[in-house]
Amino acid sequence: MLGVIRRWFDTDEVRETGTTPDYRFSLANERTFLAWIRTGLALVAGGLAAAQFLPPMPIAHLREGIAIALLLLGGAVAVRAVDHWARTERAMRLGRDLPASRFPAVLAILVGVGALVLVAAVVVQAFDGA
Fold first, then answer.
1. CA–CA separation, 14 vs 29, rounded Å?
2. Rounded to an integer, what distance in angstroms lies between the CA atom of residue 126 and that of residue 121?
3. Which region, left, alpha or beta, applies to residue 63 given φ > 0 means left and ψ of -120 to 50 means alpha?
4. Which residue of 44, 63, 86, 108 has the fewest C-beta atoms within 10 A of its own C-beta?
5. How many Å apart are CA 34 and CA 44, to the nearest integer?
6. Which regions span the lipid bilayer (predicted)?
């Protein structure tokens, strides 16, 4: 595990691995990394917004649960982004297939389930207020 994390920061190790790919591919990999970082930041911002601005929910501590889930998911996306960037850069330099990832599907499912939980909370609150 520490070896993987070390690779994220060791630029010499990246440059010494394999051959330098076409710079356009490296730049595309970096743009993908930045898109994932923006997604992680948006989830963190959503978590902070949920903690600060959501009204009390009909289910005890639902607001806090939503905030914590979004914050943790945002952190996971950021860490996953740098790991995927490093693995992809390494694969390109070694002429291997790009690494496959289930993370986008997992993230989509988590966001979809979270949305369903929020819909249920809104419906419960609407009927409690009626």
1. 14
2. 9
3. alpha
4. 108
5. 15
6. 33-54, 66-82, 103-127
4-44 pLDDT, tens digit each: 777 777 767 777 788 888 989 999 999 999 999 999 999 99
Percent of the chain clearing pLDDT 90 (strictly above): 55
Residue 99 DSSP symbol: P
* Phi, psi angle pair for 111, to nearest 5°: -65, -40
Location of structure tokens 């952190």: 75
pLDDT of residue 97: 95
- In 3D space, the residue among 25, 26, 73 whose CA is nearest the CA of residue 48 turns out to be 73
Q: How far apart are CA 130 and CA 31, in angstroms?
A: 48
Q: What is the pTM of this model?
A: 0.81
Kindly state the helix (H) or strand (E) to which residue 86 belongs, with its residue range: helix 62-94
Kindly give, in sequence order, each residue whose CB lies less than 8 Å from that of residue 20, ignoring residues fewer than 6 positions away: 93
Q: What local confidence, expressed as pLDDT, does residue 89 receive?
A: 92
DSSP code at position 126 = H
